[in-house]
Specification:
The protein has 168 residues and is an alpha+beta fold. The protein folds into 2 domains: 5-47; 50-166, Immunoglobulin-like (Sandwich), CATH 2.60.40. 20% of the residues lie in helices and 35% in strands. It is globular, with a radius of gyration of 27 Å. The termini are far apart.
Length: 168
């Protein structure tokens, strides 16, 4: 059974810590508590901020159709069915800009494609190669298969993050 103490007095034996030790323990406790609060506050300030993300899609080969955008915030969700943000924007220019407010600081990756015929899907040939322009954050060059999360990842911090993606 653990020994309990109130005001420095052991309830089981009646022993009382000397005043100096009680003061030292109290000061140590206060210092450790304040250091912990300081670290927690600085950590929250770094990770708890929000920014505006401005995404610019360039290189559209026509001024028709839609641009489909998907923003992901983890490698586990990367290129899956549940992006953290997504949008479909009608194309009326060879450049499309999308703005998202209140984006929490952190790491993100973006995938876009130009759905030129507005059928809601990426058209592919018989080999599975995309027929419509597409691109990824960091303008990752595609060789065989989609890029890895780490290649397309960028960090949002500060008041505004601007990302430009050229589709090909």
């Amino acid at each position: 059974m653990p020994v309990q103490a109130i005001n420095g007095r052991c309830l089981k034996s009646g022993y009382q810590l000397p005043l100096q030790r009680r003061i030292i323990y109290s000061l140590a406790y206060i210092i450790l508590l304040s250091v912990g609060v300081s670290f927690a506050t600085s950590s929250l300030a770094q990770s708890g901020g929000q920014a505006t993300l401005i995404l610019k899609v360039t290189g559209l080969r026509s001024e028709k159709g839609q641009v489909k955008i998907a923003v992901f915030n983890s490698s586990e969700k990367w290129l899956g069915e549940q992006p953290i943000y997504s949008s479909t924007i009608n194309v009326d220019n060879q450049t499309v800009t999308w703005r998202i407010n209140d984006v929490p600081y952190g790491d993100y990756s973006v995938a876009v494609f130009h759905d030129e015929n507005s059928n809601g899907k990426m058209d592919k040939n018989v080999l599975g190669i995309p027929l419509e322009p597409y691109g990824f954050s960091n303008n990752v060059k595609i060789t065989f298969g989609p890029p890895k999360w780490e290649e397309a990842k960028f960090t949002v911090k500060g008041s505004t993050a601007e990302v430009s993606i050229g589709v090909k």
